[in-house]
Amino acid sequence: MNVDIDKSSVVQWFDGQEKHRCGYCKHSDTSITHGMWAESLTVDDYQNLIDRGWRRSGKYCYKSIMDQTCCPLYTIRCDVVNFNLSKSQKKNIKKVNKFLKDGVINKETTETIDSIESESHLHIPKDHPAFDLTNINTNNVDNVLSGYSNDSQKPSTSKKGVTTNEKCERLEALVDQSCDTENTSSQKSITKSSCKEGLGADPNKPPCKKAKLLRIERKKAKGASVQKNSTPVQPKTIEEFLEEMSIDNKNKLRPKRFPNNEEGPGYGSFHQQYWLNEKLIAVGVIDILPKGVSSVYFFYDPDYASLTLGTYGSLREVELTRKIQKSLPEFSYYYMGFYIHSCPKMRYKGKLTPSYLVCPETYTWIPIEKCLNLLEANKYSRLNEDIDALDFNIPSEEDILQIKIIYKRSLLYFRDFKNFVEDPDRFRKIGDLIGKKCCNTLIFYENSW
Questions:
Q1: pTM exceeds 0.85, yes or no
Q2: Where are the alpha helices (DSSP H) in 13-102?
Q3: Sign of the C-alpha dihedral computed for residues 30, 34, 35 and 40 taken in this order
Q4: Domain that holds residue 338
């Protein structure tokens, strides 16, 4: 068998169902998942696992048993090529930009949005398996290429400024002046006049139009004139909003470009750091995969909670994905972990539009707008409404027989051992969970049969 183990994904499967306390609904032993420990995992394999409903926390990979667990976990991703900023997201960016400009922060407001993916909600096995991959009997031929990663750099800095009351004083003076002018003009306009008897309205003239109707007509005429004389205004992109920073800003929060003028740092795991002058105020943990950026975790200094840095960080990660996508057309998605409809704190993820959920039965991506009514009715639901749609990544019997296994320092095919194991259907179940693509690439480490 020609396989290079050093460039392959090596995992150990955890038999049975993992039952533990749910970090979302807080119930005991109601969160039910399948799990495996990945001693090594290539970016291609992890990409295929994510698209099949898996997620990693460190080296532990898990997949919710959707029809049994208390809070089904639906993988969610955003199409960054067609990304649209909402009003609230624009407001968040403007709030951060305003803080960078004047240095004023309102500490009475608190962060209302959680991090993209909190590992604290997940139970991770304490006793993870030990792997001995030395002297494995194989013929050392490349099988899977893994990605690489570089250390993040902190951005450039400058000195922090101090706020003043000049604006308040000027505003107060303007208000006083305005009030004096208004009082003078109103006194001139109020005059008494004697009423004279008349003959009433002229029956030969049309009735007078109401003032409200006149205002509407003038507004329409003005709008038509503007439309004729001006070109349509293009909405600002997320990049334009994020880069609206004056050179006179008292605070500096600028991302540093990748080294050597590269468009991206390569595949792998990274820490995206947010430096305010000389102070680290937030960190985003991300995985850069073949199809896009996967947000793992985000944490920040609570002194800056009013800036809603969780939202700001996700928008920065969308911007990063769009930047890399210009060089890699297939790099089009921002993965936000799991969407949990029964958990209100997680519903904000659907506000990054357009977003899609993966169907737990066909593993096709469905617009979230089409899923909401289904999830309101049932916490677990097949999201693909096409009853004839199938899972095209389901492994065949031959794929199952070709699964590679390390046993007693030898690399073997499952076909050679299926007649000697207690549960011959074990790898059939595993294959259905990981999909055809991963059946051909993952290597399973077995201690005993």
A1: no
A2: 43-50, 87-102
A3: negative
A4: 5-146+254-422+431-446
